[in-house]
Amino acid sequence: MKKEYYLYKLKLSSLNFISIILLIIMMLLTFIIVRLFNISITIEISNINIGIVCITYIIYIIFHELLHSLSYILHGAKFKNITYGAHLEKGILCCLCKQNITKKNILNSLLFPLFYLGLITYVIGLIISSPLLIILSILNISGCSGDIIMFIYFIKLRNFEYTELDDPISFALYTSDNISQNKPYGLKYIGHAENVERNDLKKLSVSKISFLLLILLIIMSLVLIFVKR
Fold it and tell me: What is the pTM of this model?
């Protein structure tokens, strides 16, 4: 059977559901670990500067996407074929690899931010008793729902090549296996084709809504920082 591109789209409702589940699990796990090992973590609400937390989280999620791209490059992708984007109306920031890459490459890229910005920083946060680092790590793990859903599906498949499309929530798998009958959770199969278009996005693509929301969030965060002082 000849190779074709099998096209998929992420189901945002499923991603949001899994994110909530992950958030609850990590909060319960943290409570258990803190009690079990008698870790001293105190959060004084009066001392929390929401503005600093917001700015820090923005940096954190941007770094999340940069780690995706770093993993792409380390495992064979070319930097010129990687684009970045903010589409907050869809609830996502994204790093898109606009070339065919191997199964090994995409599996590593999906786990890269989860491991280094989620699990590793979470453990460090517990060791140094840092509420901020623990919270950021938990939020990052919760935000990896799409990465986890894709990883679970991809690990079950045989050899394939992966590529992302111009739509930030869509991707394609290039394979000779007929995978059109698969029904992976959180993913919608939208058809197959001999070729795909993936050249419309600029190196950095930010929707108008994302730009306005980002500016508003930064202004509000700065105001909160100075008001707190």
Answer: 0.87
